[in-house]
Amino acid sequence: MGAYILRRLLLVIPTLLGIMIVNFALIQFVPGGPIEQIIARLEGGGDVFESISGSGSELAETGDSDNYLGSRGLPDDFIEQLEKEFGFDKPPVERFLNMMWDYIRFDFGDSYFRNISVVELVVEKMPVSITLGLWSTLLAYMISIPLGIKKAIRDGSRFDTWTSGAIIVGYAIPGFLFAVLLIVLFAGGSYWRLFPLRGLTSDNFADLSLIGKVLDYFWHIALPVLASTISAFATLTLLTKNSFLDEIKKQYVTTAKAKGLSEQKVLYGHVFRNAMLIVISGFPALFIGVFFGGSLIIETLFSLDGLGRLGFEAAVARDYPVVFGTLFTFSLIGLVVGIITDLTYVMIDPRIDFEGRG
């Protein structure tokens, strides 16, 4: 097993390098880079870069458009200075090598358009993503595993038919549409105002008692977590049912019953461990997928500022340090999680031997 883990760890390096090369190459052909973004906003009088272009409000008050650089075009030396500051005066290959050298040392630099480092920016947005990822995954498992087992035991019954219909409906409904429905019904949209519509906590969160803080936290996350869970819940339930059905039909189950073991002993003493192999071992990958993937629309609907919105805003603004820094980090974590998933397989079922492959 040690040799297998070593091979997988060594494979992380070329895989991660390939991901970065492909994305860096693609980004070279995308129009509207950081320099163009700054020039466009300067010439348009935007207030995002007032520290560079001067106060747009002062321009509006004085009406002195002759002193505004955007009215007569930006000087070439100013543009060259911008390119040098952002490193775009160097060839793409050199920029890529410099970037990877910094990333190997986990130096992701600062955001182009925010006065904050990439690491601090990700840490700032992480509570929202941890909330959605952790609780959505746990809720999906807590509902799906018991329901999937029940459906497998009562396969073909009326209970199985009705719950399958509900699961199909849940799978067909997009998470963002279900979020809108929850807002309309329970967040003051058109009916009841039972839950808040924005943020993870209330304004007076610091003044609440410990129990009050816990209740306030769950009160705020109830609707977004439900909206994030619906599709994962449907998929996981069917996966659990099918896994149990496959195991129930195997010879060892018939043998165990013939020996006089009770149905509960056979089900949870023998079938459960084998059937749950693929379900439980997929927990790390599912959590990381929800955690880092996030949901831009759900975060926007519930006014949650997480990694989903951060990634979208960075891509739109061409904030390359944020884009590539998060891509490198999340890709690395995703590859490591793949190894952890394999180890989870072995922990659950020691009969699995990856060393025997090939």
What is the CA-based Rg, rounded? 26 Å
* Element string (H = helix, E = strand): HHHHHHHHHHHHHHHHH
Overall outline: globular
Strand % is: under 5%
How many DSSP helices?
17
Q: What do the pLDDT scores average to?
A: 78
The helicity comes to over 70%
Counting copies of identical and different chains, the oligomeric state is: single chain
The major pleated sheet works out as: none
Count of DSSP strands: 0
Low-confidence stretches: 45-72
User: By helix and strand content, what is the structural category?
Assistant: mainly alpha
Distance between the termini: 14 Å
Explain what the structure shows:
- With 358 residues, this protein is mainly alpha-helical.
- 72% of the residues lie in helices and 0% in strands.
- It has 17 helices and no strands.
- The longest helix is centred in the middle third of the chain and has 39 residues, at 210-248.
- Mean pLDDT is 78; it is low at 45-72.
Outline of the structure:
It contains 17 helices and no strands. It has 358 residues and is mostly helical.
Distinctive features:
globular, mainly alpha, 358 residues
